[in-house]
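Internal ticket #5521
Category: modeling
Description: The requester needs a full-assembly model to guide mutagenesis choices. All entity lines are attached below as received. Residue total reported by intake: 624.
Assigned to: D.W.
Attached entities:
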Amino acid sequence: MQSAGAPCVWGTRAATQGRPYESNYCYYSIVVELRLDIGCRALIVDLESITIEFGSQKALDGVSMQFAGGSMGLLGPNGAGKSTLLKTLLGFLTPKTGRGKVLGLDIRSQQLAIRQRVGYMPENDCHIPGMNAVSFVAYAGQLAGMKPKDSLQRAHEILHYVGLGEARYRNVETYSGGMKQRIKLAQALVHGPELIFLDEPTNGLDPKGRIEMLELIRDIWNGKGIHVILSTHLLPDVEWVCRDALVLHQGRRLAAQKIDDLKQSSGATFECRIKGDGDSFREQLRLLGCPVQDGEDGVMRVLLVNGLGSDSLLRIARDHGIQIRHLVPLKQSLEDVFLQVIGES
Amino acid sequence: MPIYDLSYRQWSGVWTSHPYRWWVITRQGINILGRKRRFLVLMILSALPFLVRCVMLYLSTVLGRIPLLTINAKFFEDFLSQQMFFVFIIAIYAGAGLIANDLKANALQIYFSKPITRRDYVMGKLGVLFFFLALPTLVPGMLLFFLAVLFKSDASFLEQNYWVPASVLGYSLLIIATYSVVMLAVSSLSKSSRFAGIVFAALFFFSRIFYQILSVVLRSTRVAWVSLGNNLTQIGDYLFQVSPQYQSPLWLSAMVLGLLMLGSVWLLHHRVQAVEVVK
């Protein structure tokens, strides 16, 4: 399958493509071409109707997702199936129905090849007992197939990158919560994955630590070219770091879009203050399917849906003999959209 | 200005071959245990019976000072049976925490998020126990035979006992495999290494006590198969071609040990999972 809706990118290729360069000094021209990602790049993750059952409980119910690359946030309340989805992608859980590919590899039959090319930062506190940070990260690299010398060198680099350079000879068991989150990230990155799954990476972090962790994640996909799938129930984290979002609820997919599109598609929110019979005005809006929320000082928040705009609001007010004294469009936050999507389901 | 780029760089080195991935786990386990002073003391202590046997061998063969000591197959079987005490202690010390500590630290997710299978993991952990249990059994057993051949200058000893190394190898491997697999299975039962150690010890002690009660009540050693240690001794007697100590049939001892090993492997298969699924 091919990616859809992915952005255009500028690429370069040598005009001599197809035959070997004769020497390092041979002259060749560079052709700059505009390549549309649509139809050119394979999907990073492609799932179709995945169902995971634990006994009679459906943890994932026919979930489909397509991830073309970049960064995606898995959103959902606790128990929505976010971690289960990540574990399915890693091959820890075998789907009852459906099919899926990660980096072009089948999740049922090529789990080892997938794990060779992805990194996973688990949600809960985990480490390998009796090791300092360097040994731990180097060991993780060796488990992935790196040679001892390479993995040791790489461990030092990665620990510096995640901000544990000074504490790298300390036993991991003595680390604080924030440091443990970083070391989990380090072990996920040590073998140079193309895709990384982060399960609640900002859990238990103080505000400063949280910002640093999010900056790090942003750098991972934005600066280092590693695709990121971030699972969290903290919506601002996803809004800050990710470009796409997949909303899960009770094991079902509710929405999967670019975050900006998700915000736009859910309608426009206005803050307004009126003079006149507010009850009939509210009733009319509710009949049109637009939720109204009363705030302080007579200010109300109206979410206009089904293509309605501010002109519709003004027309309704006029029809009901109401004066609108104050009308300000509000920027939708991901939290508003999320609550709306969950509420609709 | 930094003299070295500390930022992230993609790695594009050479991967090691997957069939040897279990060795990474074994090597790491050996390193961690090898750094523990108390464990090293235990390993040194376990070498003392070997040194005593070497001296006995020397006195008996070269100097002829211990005329009643016969260097034959039983000499080597006795040595290995004697070493079972150390094997038991080492198995608990080295093995009780091998999986239990990983369960406690949620380390299985780390292992299985890498290209590691359950078989690699279990083989890696078994490798640690095999290594440390071979040191007081297989290695000194073979060395002892080698020394006996050296000290006995005539070829008749080798002609009569040429099959003993195979028996030493077989009996050592049986002891190592039984203790390793059972200890590892027990270790996978709990997040507490202490609990695992107690259960393992109880398994050996209680089966022994149960046998002793039964043997007194029935006035027979036909029920020796209920004790794990007795089963090993029975098979050891067969391998070294000495008269069996117990009246229980050999096949029953072999079957009990076989079933115990199969049960342990089944337990390992079900307990060692990347995800703990509560249904």
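Resolution: model delivered.
Comment from assignee: The mean pLDDT of chain A is 82.
Ticket closed.
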